[in-house]
Amino acid sequence: MRASCTPVVLLLAVGLTVHLGVHFVQPGLPMTWSYAHLDRHPALPWVGAALLVALPLVTTLVWRLPAANRPLGRLGWRTVAATMCGEFVLLALGVTHPTPPAWFDAAYFVKWVSEGAWYRNVRWYLTVWFLSKLAALVRPWIQPVTFIRGANTLLAATALAALAGCARLLGHTRGEAAAITLLAWSAFGVLQITLGYTDVYPVALLVTALYVWTALGVLAGQRHPVWPFLLAAAGPFWYIGLVLLGPSLLVIAWVTARRPGGWSRLAVAGAVSVAVAGVATVPGFGYPFAWRAFLAKVATQASWGYRPGWSGDTLPLSFMLSTVHAAEVGHTLLLVDGVGVLLLLVAGGWVVARRRWDERAAFLSLLVLSYLAYVIAMDPVFGPFADWDLFSYGAAATSVLGAYVFVLWGRECPRPFRVLLGVALAAAGVHLLARLNGLDVNLWGHLDESPFHLGVPDPSNARAPGSGS
After folding, report:
1. Rounded to the nearest 5°, which phi and psi values hold at 313?
2. CA 294/CA 34 separation, integer angstroms
3. What share of the chain is helix, strand, coil (3-state, %, to 5)?
4. pLDDT for residue 467 is more than 70
5. pLDDT, tens digit, for every residue of 278-326?
6. Which of 251, 245, 260, 252 is nearest to 206 (CA)?
7. What are phi and psi of 378, to 5 degrees?
8. Which of 58, 348, 349, 416 is deepest in the core (most CB within 10 A)?
9. CA distances to 272, 273, 362 from 233, in Å
10. Burial grade of 357 (CB within 10 A; 0-12, 13-18, 19 or more)
11. CA angle, 379 as apex, 235 and 338 as ends, to 5°?
């Protein structure tokens, strides 16, 4: 093994050991909601241990096969057919085994879709408007809650297909593409909202995944920049948090402008995206380019603040800098995509140090930085455990970038990569065994660990997690 590989091997070994340790040991920390409940069934720890033994052996053997090192070819009809079959399997699972709601947001979402009440929260008004129109068409046969679970599952399953498309654009071989795909799919924030999730976030995941896929296609010279620009422009009308896609467009614009005919392509992309953003206000406001009315409505519906008299959706700076919030952010990232974030920090540091950074990594990094700023600044009003899904769809960015920089490292360190890939997938699998469809386990205990951000007189006097009601 090369000497340059050793630091990453050691850091990943320690990080993945700690990740697995907190799941198997389940220490009684002040917050436990991000890793607890591997013991919710007696068989789960044994299944997790089996994954830890089997997956490194499987990845080591598979990586040596000639098929794993073949270049990626064109998609055939078998792949398309398998994708469609997979979507229907997920549809069945999403309808029959939907994600248990951890809070009452799901009930409000069903009510608004059922009534077509998009105006109750314009921060995702197009999603409610669109789903309510479709739900009305099938209402004689399908109840709104069942329809929402099925529709959201299909939308999120399409996002999984888009993430696999991202992997094909990032990997050089079939093995690399498979590794990136599996690491992205196994992120809790991605998989949990795929299984019949009753809220807006499957739509946010879909738009994010399509945006990354089309943007990577532009960087590879295979697509017109109009597609990521269009998605970034329309996204906030489907879910307001998708405004965070915007900063990463700078990389797309910079790369496109340097190519022959790039400025004309950017002009088309800009014109189309402005037109789409203008038309997006017609269903709710009755006329195009009603941006001022839309933003005014968003401002009036901003969530309750962290303390009385505080308005807006962001936390006070004093609380952002507190140790309580640092713990909240850490547990949020561990819940949503702990393995992806670990790979990003460790392998990403190696990529930067070795100057292996490229345009694709720069684009994904800007997207992840916007997401991390959102995680730090956004106020999860009902506590980061109950409002965890505010940050769920960001796993599409952290998992893809974490897997990509891990693969970049693996190209120069193939022998340890084979083993660590299996350990990383096992760690992600253990996390899913502990938390997938288990957010309702010990619900009130975790809500006590992760208190509401309502009615607290001052951030400096915030109740410490786990200190009781």
Report:
1. -100, -5
2. 35
3. 75, 0, 25
4. no
5. 999 999 999 999 999 999 998 887 654 444 444 457 888 888 999 999 9
6. 245
7. -70, 140
8. 348
9. 9, 6, 21
10. middle
11. 80
Structure token pair of residue 213 = 């896929």
Buried b (16+ CB within 10 A) or exposed e, 400-427: bbbbbbbbbbbeebeebbbbbbbbbbbb
DSSP 173: B
pTM: 0.93
3-state secondary structure of 41: coil
Task: Enter the DSSP assignment of 244.
Answer: G
| CA dist., res. 20 & res. 237, Å (int) | 39
> Per-residue pLDDT averaged across 401-408, rounded?
98
Cα separation, 289 vs 273, in Å, equals 12
| Portion of the chain with pLDDT greater than 90, in percent | 74
* Of 165, 164, 124, the residue nearest 148 (C-alpha): 124
Q: What is the model's pLDDT at position 303?
A: 53
Tokens of 353: 């140090």
Are 123 and 381 spatial neighbours (Cβ–Cβ below 8 Å)? no
Positions of E strands within 29-152: none
Find where tokens 């990453």 sit: 8
Q: How far apart are CA 394 and CA 340, in angstroms?
A: 11
C-alpha distances out from residue 129 to 123, 232, 258, 315, 381, Å: 12, 19, 40, 29, 25
How far is the C-alpha of 109 from the C-alpha of 393, rounded, in Å?
A: 17
Q: What is the DSSP string of 392-426?
A: TTTHHHHHHHHHHHHHHHHHH-HHHHHHHHHHHHH
Residue type, 357: W
CA distance linking residue 370 with residue 397, whole number of Å: 10
Q: Is 355 left (phi over 0), alpha (psi -120 to 50) or beta?
A: left
Mean pLDDT of the chain: 90
The pair of three-digit structure tokens given for residue 84, joined into one six-digit string: 């469609």
- Would you state the structure tokens that stand for residue 135, as one six-digit string? 């739900």
**DSSP letters of 139-157?**
TTTS-HHHHHHHHHHHHHH
